[in-house]
Amino acid sequence: MTPDEPSHEAPSPPPERSPPTESPEEGKETPEPVAEAPPEPQDDWQRRYHYLLADFENFRRRTQREVDHAVERARGQILLKTIDLHEGIEHTLEKLPPDAKALRAGLTLVLSNFDAFLRGEGVEPVARPGDPFRHDLHEAVGQVAPTPEAPEGTVAVVVQQGYRTAQGLLRPAKVMVARAPEEGEGAPETPAVPRDEPSSG
């Protein structure tokens, strides 16, 4: 066979390929990894801590104010009861007969003890004749004609004394106000025996 003649030999078959082995996991979906929440930054914890601390401080102050108000209300009620006893003793002393000297001396001693207690608690009267009439301290129960000692718009007569402390008013005073009558009005009446009256409460 010459080099120019074509070859009639059959081509060699391609090498056999082994069938692909199927993986036991093939065909199953691989679950996607769950994304974890990023850790909170340190400054967020500090911020939450400061908010919590501020809320607690507000709660503490509010509770303390409520306690203080409750204590002050209870103190005011005790002082009013003491004032009622004080005025009751004064009224009794006025009604005692002249020969009840021993009883008068005993009640006077008790009255002085009440006076010392009330002064120690900062209790002060709020009305005197000649003082300007004040709606926040006085309760007008009538009016009388003005005088040099009680000019127009002032307290002329204290019917029942009122009291206050540094914390506020315990009881307003009942007073007669000096006021000149207007045209067409009659002269204001003056009470026959103006004096403090004991409280009924």
Structural account:
The protein is an alpha+beta fold and 201 residues long. Among the domains are: 79 residues; 55 residues, Roll (Nucleotide Exchange Factor Grpe, Chain A, domain 2). Helix content is 37%, strand content 14%. The strands form two sheets. It has a three-stranded antiparallel beta sheet with strand order 1-4-5, covered by helices on one side. The protein has a three-stranded mixed beta sheet with strand order 2-6-3, with no helix packed on it. A hairpin with a 2-residue loop joins strand 4 and strand 5. The chain is elongated, with a radius of gyration of 49 Å.
Task: Write a brief structural summary.
The protein is of the alpha+beta class. Among the domains are: 42-120; 124-178, Nucleotide Exchange Factor Grpe, Chain A, domain 2 (Roll), CATH 2.30.22. It is 37% helix and 14% strand.
Topology readout:
Blueprint: H1 42-95, H2 101-120, E1 124-125, E2 138-144, E3 155-160, E4 163-165, E5 168-171, E6 173-178
Parallel strand pairs: 2-6
Antiparallel strand pairs: 1-4, 3-6, 4-5
